[in-house]
Amino acid sequence: xxxxxxxxxxxxxxxxxxxxxxxxxxxxxxxxxxxxxxxxxxxxxxxxxxxxxxxxxxxxxxxxxxxxxxxxxxxxxxxxxxxxxxxxxxxxxxxxxxxxxxxxxxxxxxxxxxxxxxxxxxxxxxxxxxxxxxxxxxxxxxxxxxxxxxxxxxxxxxxxxxxxxxxxxxxxxxxxxxxxxxxxxxxxxxxxxxxxxxxxxxxxxxxxxxxxxxxxxxxxxxxxxxxxxxxxxx
Length: 234
Ligand code: AP5
Description:
The protein is of the alpha/beta class. It has a domain of 158 residues: 3-Layer(aba) Sandwich (Rossmann fold). Helices cover 50% and strands 14% of the residues. The chain is built from 10 helices and 8 strands. The strands form 3 sheets. A 3-stranded parallel β-sheet has the order 1-3-2. Helix 2 crosses helix 10, helix 5 packs parallel to helix 6 and helix 7 crosses helix 8. The N and C termini lie far apart (36 Å). The N terminus is likely disordered. Bound molecules: BIS(adenosine)-5'-pentaphosphate (AP5).
């Protein structure tokens, strides 16, 4: 893949050490429905960072019927990952604005080791690196409950849960096509096969921190802010 710089581990490490700055780049990871989007939005507001959700970017392109949207529509509907080259190019094209605006929270990206290495390389080209990778963990049964109860307001794009985060009465609700039970099961399987092996990449560099996603939305936000304060601003 053209994006890798083929730098060895020692060179990468010394470059990371030399680029420590006030910018912050967080990689929010976890199974589907763990609350990555919910939390990333809150953290982005609190910390003044950009929220970069590859899933949201794909969905926006689908609803606007762009060329990219037409290419990825069937994949998203069936809970299948978009090819790496397309996803990495998307992030690479937009990274400049996030660097200029002081940092970003990546939500749903990277999704596998290839993407994680590509993100390292992309950030390194801008003299930056990943500061922390919060992993929101959740049992399979809760994932299914969360996703089958999730609804999005067509007009505002806001996400709700029919029980845990009820929408306002006038909301124009829709269900994501990939939130049907069978598709959710496929996404969980994909998470285990493709994303879980990536976690070691961050764990080895002491960037991974696990947060219990079974708690309430507010409790998860508090736990995330605590760990970010402790690790990034220490
Ligand atoms: P994407 O949109 O990234 O989906 P995902 O990772 O499966 O995550 P979700 O958006 O489903 O869940 P979430 O963790 O954000 O949970 P949320 O906060 O909404 O990707 C969709 C598709 O795009 C992929 O399948 C793939 O096709 C493609 N794609 C995207 N990125 C890609 C990449 N990098 N490479 C290749 N393909 C890519 O919360 C879920 C529900 O639970 C909500 O209803 C919420 O209100 C509720 N909730 C949240 N937290 C709590 C809580 N603590 N207690 C109770 N309820 C809660």
